[in-house]
């Protein structure tokens, strides 16, 4: 039997990189989809040192066709996608009086719409037991007005996760958003590695009593 596979969308040096390493340590092979080749190249050696086979692709996930093609290539190569982790969001420091509608929609396309794209592309390669995870944020409930679009993205992506979970549950595929109720830091309860541990725990739960949102408060 082949090893399980996680595809990390929005792969970078923070939480998403920690998620990739956490799952690699649990025996997963890893597909990385990110925006910068140099960042992906930095992640690969550490993942391979954990025994993972690693594929990586640079794509703009707001380019629907490019994102679909990238995820499809991962699925075709491995024959399976067991976990799809979605991390992207846009941080734009503008309050609601300076934020334009086109800017808001551009950010939502990244932080919410791209999830639709990658899930639809991954679905043919997912089977019962498959999981979709999303890095959520307390900004969904307690937005900072200085970066108004971020709260909209995080509320929207959490809502979409609820819908995805209900849609896919009959096929044995579940979705979860882990709401990080704290600011990321280099030390303490909200390091990227600790958040990755929370995401692993949320994905690895038994399906009985499943919830499509899990709060992480450290």
Automatic annotation (TrEMBL):
One of its GO terms (molecular function) is oxidoreductase activity. Coiled coil: none annotated. SUPFAM superfamilies: NAD(P)-binding Rossmann-fold domains. The keyword Repressor does not apply. Transmembrane segments: none annotated. Gene3D superfamilies: NAD(P)-binding Rossmann-like Domain. Keywords: Oxidoreductase. Pfam families: adh_short. Belongs to the short-chain dehydrogenases/reductases (SDR) family. This is NADP-dependent 3-hydroxy acid dehydrogenase YdfG. It comes from Nocardioides exalbidus.
């Amino acid at each position: 039997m082949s090893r399980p596979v996680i595809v990390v969308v929005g792969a970078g040096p923070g939480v998403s990189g920690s998620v990739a390493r956490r799952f690699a340590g649990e025996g997963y092979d890893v597909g990385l989809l990110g925006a910068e080749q140099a960042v992906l190249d930095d992640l690969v050696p550490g993942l391979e040192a954990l025994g993972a086979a690693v594929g990586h692709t640079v794509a703009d996930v707001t380019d629907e066709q490019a994102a679909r093609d990238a995820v499809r290539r991962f699925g075709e190569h491995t024959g399976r996608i067991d976990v799809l982790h979605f991390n992207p969001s846009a941080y734009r420091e503008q309050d609601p009086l300076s934020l334009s509608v086109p800017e808001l929609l551009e950010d939502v396309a990244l932080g919410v719409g791209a999830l639709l794209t990658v899930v639809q592309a991954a679905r043919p390669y997912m089977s019962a037991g498959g999981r979709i995870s999303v890095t959520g944020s307390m900004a969904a409930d307690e937005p900072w007005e200085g970066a108004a679009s971020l709260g909209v993205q995080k509320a929207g992506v959490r809502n979409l996760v609820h819908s995805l979970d209900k849609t896919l549950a009959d096929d044995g595929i579940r979705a979860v958003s882990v709401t990080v109720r704290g600011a990321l830091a280099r030390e303490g309860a909200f390091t990227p590695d600790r958040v990755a541990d929370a995401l692993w725990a949320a994905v690895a739960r038994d399906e009985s009593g499943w919830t499509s949102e899990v709060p992480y408060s450290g």
